[in-house]
Amino acid sequence: MSEPLVAVQGLHKSYRMGKVDLHVLRGVSFSLSAGSFTAVVGASGSGKSTLLHLIGMLDKPDRGMVALSGQDVTALPTRRRDGMRCRDVGFVFQFYHLLGELNVLENVLLPAKVACSTLAWLGQRAKARQAATETLDRLGLGDRLRHRPKELSGGERQRVAIARALMNRPRILLADEPTGNLDSASGKGIMELLKQCNRRDGQTILMVTHDASLAEQTDRILHLRDGRCNEL
Length: 232
Ligand SMILES: Nc1ncnc2c1ncn2[C@@H]1O[C@H](COP(=O)(O)OP(=O)(O)OP(=O)(O)O)[C@@H](O)[C@H]1O
Ligand SMILES: [Mg+2]
What we know:
This protein is an alpha/beta fold.
């Protein structure tokens, strides 16, 4: 069998709150094959966002391992982790995390800019702008390019966050409730876009959702409960 693109083994994560340790993840293990589309479901507070942050190298586990293409990323030096995150992972945050001082287009272009040197950016800027504009068009934001995040609705901000996550065409897309703030028609549109990224572009997607009808449209559903992950 070929090596999984993402392997998570025995992940533990606690948060210390005063004198109490909140043991959120208690030995989470699973793997994702390249090109798969997986949903993560579970009650609020069960650790879904925590799990995505660990896989996306935004935080480190207390114990256990996250491997990308067989490489244990928890043990890598910070610069290597930053480089891999930038190149290989697209993140749609539950609460967007757009930069308020940048407009829509600038927010979406940011990952492309960060991924290359200043000199290389000068050569690639025009192409990147075109790609970003096309994605924003596809997401129905073609006439919002110069808006700042505070001038957008919640659903529009979420779509900008999705466009930003797709900018570098990452191998892995981690989406934390990407339709959580959308009406059902916009939610369906986002789901179609994610399916297209998965089927057409071969992106491996791990998506947190509270929407059972969306989870059912993926290849596989993982249920996070009591700090552990089981297949549904
Ligand atoms: N930085 C932190 N410091 C302390 N506790 C935290 C921190 N981040 C998360 N927690 C706690 O860990 C638990 C899991 O949080 P997490 O955000 O992963 O849940 P979730 O499953 O994503 O929930 P939701 O569906 O509401 O988004 C929660 O009880 C939360 O209060
Ligand atoms: Mg969450």
